[in-house]
Specification:
Elements (H helix, E strand, L loop, with lengths): L10 H11 L4 E5 L3 H14 L5 E5 L2 E2 L15 H6 L4 H12 L10 H7 L10 E2 L2 H14 L2 H16 L5 H17 L3 H8 L11 H7 L2 H15 L6 H15 L5 H12 L7 H8 L1 H7 L1
Parallel strand pairs: 1-2, 3-4
């Protein structure tokens, strides 16, 4: 079928005419088009046109072995961006998913341009693996400079907070970025673990509420303002030293018992960058205000 009942051409005719008019010499596409190739060549032969050289690549399948679709997760580039994946990581992953160059896993754009050849393409379909994509993304996050990471995170902060980051919040997040990116698998993780810097009074999540509801945590937090207000050397080390003294005198030397309620109260989360570093970045006045 090359024409519809209203006289408009179908894909099968249009693509052949378009390729011919544009001088297309090579067509590389998914192997779900393999059957179409033979039908399209009938039109090329009928017109006496030179046929392009065709290459058909295996499809990308979902984790369950079915053809990749929206039900397997993100389907568009924008969705992967919103999920916190860096462009370089996604390019690297998609390239490596259907093509190989020896045992190389980390492949830069420059290397891809230099090395790529159709002979390296897989002959069988590949399954999309989000765990592998996250691993690659973690590598590229660590390799990206802090300023660029923050810029890429800004739309995600706005989505989560409902407003733009203030200059003060940006400065504090940048001061913590080395630690944030050292364990992040996605930009969303960076944003989630640092959004508290932009909040005047972070609301504790479920895990933090559970910690704050414990009698021991309440006693520790009640003692902290007077203890911390005496610190003159407001640095990570100075804060930790004061808390160590408290832990030795009251908690059998268990510093973690001090850090956990402090983190829950100051950040509203059970997980965050190192709490003593966070307190240094927030500053003495802001820390005491939150307590």
């Amino acid at each position: 079928i090359i024409l519809r009942s209203d006289g408009t051409p179908t894909y099968m005719l249009s693509v052949v005419v378009d390729d011919h008019d544009m001088g297309v010499t090579h067509v590389i596409r998914g192997d779900d088009h393999l059957n179409n190739t033979f039908r399209q060549n009938l039109i090329n032969d009928a017109m006496g046109w030179e046929k392009p050289t065709y290459g058909h690549l295996p499809l990308i399948l979902g984790p369950d072995g079915a053809k990749m679709s929206k039900r397997h997760g993100a389907a568009s580039v924008e969705e992967y961006r919103d999920m916190g994946y860096l462009p370089a990581a996604l390019r690297n992953y998609l390239l490596r998913l259907g093509w190989s160059h020896g045992d190389d896993e980390i492949i830069s754009d420059a290397q891809a341009k230099e090395w790529f050849d159709l002979s390296g393409c897989n002959r069988s379909a590949a399954r999309f693996d989000f765990a592998k994509l996250e691993s690659l993304n973690a590598h590229y996050i660590k390799e990206t400079n802090n300023e660029e990471l923050l810029q890429r995170c800004l739309p995600l902060y706005k989505n989560q907070l409902g407003e733009e980051l203030s200059t003060t919040a940006k400065t504090m997040i940048l001061a913590c970025m080395d630690e944030l990116k050292s364990r992040a698998k996605t930009l969303v993780q960076i944003v989630t673990e640092s959004a508290f810097f932009a909040l005047e009074k972070p609301e504790p999540d479920t895990d933090a509420q559970e910690i704050l509801g414990q009698d021991e945590a309440k006693a520790i937090l009640a003692a902290m303002p007077s203890l911390l207000s005496t610190i003159e050397n407001w640095t990570h080390e100075g804060i930790m030293d004061a808390c160590k003294i408290y832990a030795n005198d009251n908690l059998g030397g268990k510093l973690g018992k001090v850090g956990m309620p402090l983190r829950a109260k100051i950040t509203g989360r059970k997980q965050s960058p190192g709490i003593f570093h966070v307190m240094e970045i927030l500053g003495k006045d802001e820390t005491l205000k939150r307590l």
